[in-house]
Amino acid sequence: MEHLMARKVALITGGSRGIGAAIARRFAPTHDVVITYVGATERAEALVEELHATGARALAVRTEAADAADLRAAVDRTVAEFGHVDVVVGNAGIAPYGPLADVTLDEVDRTLAIHARASFLLAQAAAPHIPDGGRIVFIGSSLADRVPYAGWSLYAMSKSALSGLAKGLARDLGPRGITVNVVAPGSTDTEMNPSDGPDADEERSFTALGRYCSPDDIAATVAHLAGDGGRMITGAVLAVDAGVTA
Ligand code: NDP
Prior knowledge:
Blueprint: H1 2-5, E1 8-12, H2 18-27, E2 31-37, H3 41-53, E3 58-62, H4 68-82, E4 87-90, H5 105-126, E5 135-139, H6 153-173, E6 179-185, H7 200-205, H8 215-226, E7 237-240
Parallel strand pairs: 1-2, 1-4, 2-3, 4-5, 5-6, 6-7
Helix pairs in contact: 2-8, 4-5, 5-6
The structure holds NADPH dihydro-nicotinamide-adenine-dinucleotide phosphate.
């Protein structure tokens, strides 16, 4: 009986703020939580304290998502601390935006490294430590499916890679009962895309519901995928986007 009640372990990249922090808060009642961050040390540590106060064991690890060794070290640290990892959420991201002619080669390489390459490497490093029945979730974007404005080609390309990755990993890891999915948010109220920002009204106008998602709207679907209700969902892209792709 004791093992059935045991707390699980979640590793969430980019957990210091925004969507990643909302996912960490969602998991804390039932999971011990490792968050990664790249610059926001104080905020990551403050969230760890907040999670401790709920009874979770929690840890923040500085991890540059574009750095393969850093990603492997984050997985190693998680396993050293907690023994295994039940849920891996690849969330860390950036939002490069601008006229096509201005995009530099460095920006192309860095964006692909942070969104696509990091997701692959994270899953590859974590897979041996995920027990049968575990979960991998990547945070994609509605812009991988519909791009209603100019200036987002690079971002859309980098996020659309996650769909193919999730489908391939679903086949690789399916025999172990591990599911792999993408949650694809639409406009979500974070520092990356504040709901009172200069483009917010236009973004709202593209949605069916006429509103932004909250970070917790995204976290709720990640939690569903990680729970019993998600056990038969794999290789899927779930839009949580207020109908922007409807
Ligand atoms: P935020 O900018 O609020 O948070 C980004 C998070 O990613 C932070 O924890 C940040 O760490 C971390 N991060 C950024 N760059 C790196 C890096 N190079 N290496 C490691 N970690 C990094 O963004 P959101 O919460 O809005 O976005 C989370 C995810 O959701 C992203 O993948 C984004 O593309 C996606 N998304 C967001 C949408 C939105 O409208 N907000 C819509 C669709 C998808 P630190 O705090 O240390 O800087």
